[in-house]
Amino acid sequence: MTKLEELIQEINRFEAIVAEWDESQRCVVVGLQRAIEALHKVALMRLIKSLKKEESISALRDAVDDEVVYGVLLYHELVKPPKPPLSQRVQTAIDEVRPSLKSHNGDVELIAIKLPDTVEVRFIGTCSHCPSSTLTLSQGIEQAIKKYCPEITKVIAVDKKPIVHSANGLTSPFYQKRNPPWVKLTTVDQVPESAVLAVNFAGYSLILHRQGVNISCYKNACSHLASPLDEGTVENGIITCPSHGFQYRLDTGECLTAPDVSLHSYPVKIKGDKVFVQLLLKI
């Protein structure tokens, strides 16, 4: 076992112990944790400033290439998260329009990304022979893909079966998908109970809602026509889409208007007063 793994196990062990304490005791630990983290952040900021002043940018870049250094700097919000890979951004765009297609018993899937500027998709179900499929492609799917992927200029509908790509764009039977990382989005006191908190992070548009000690996170898109939900009204834990009136339970994501189209949810974890959400990022 490496030293890093030992340190992580030690942190997890202490967190498990503290989780069993009463609230007043945990508050003391959280206060100490905040103070130490604030001190570390100031020290890291001064170190980065000193390296920049001495024109040691290359040394700073080399340090950030280390995954542990990068993880700590990302935790303290001292570096920006990387831009998601093209394949992920294309899939995010497709997921955004998919609820609208499914409401008409249709769907679309990614077939291939042909660099530098072309994406191929395939219509499924009623969309495959719908007379308005050309309009759906140009005004729905193409617009969504270009919004997330400005480098893509052509979106083409084909009849081929999809090709499975790995994260680096190469097909491999040995490719293993890494577990998505936990990303700190906000703090508990910033998440309201009478409304939702809208957060944009690395290409994700999200809403968070708190009910007591539980916090839920969903994609900021109505499952009907993908309209943003953050301006919707919240009453008794139910949010109403401002565009077409679809209603969802914020504790489960269940749609009360059409039970088959629940909100897209993301795992949430709370550590101290910080809210972490598990998102698929290239870290």
Automatic annotation (TrEMBL):
Keywords: 2Fe-2S, Iron, Iron-sulfur, Metal-binding
The keyword Cell division appears for this protein: no
One Pfam family named in its UniProt record: Rieske
Domain of life: Bacteria
Keyword Iron-sulfur: yes
Ranges of residues in domain Rieske: 182-277
InterPro entries: FSCA_dom_sf, NIF_FeS_clus_asmbl_NifU_C, Rieske_2Fe-2S, Rieske_2Fe-2S_sf
SUPFAM superfamilies listed in its UniProt record: Fe-S cluster assembly (FSCA) domain-like, ISP domain
Function: May be involved in the formation or repair of [Fe-S] clusters present in iron-sulfur proteins.
Family affiliation: Belongs to the NifU family.
Protein's name in the database: NifU family protein
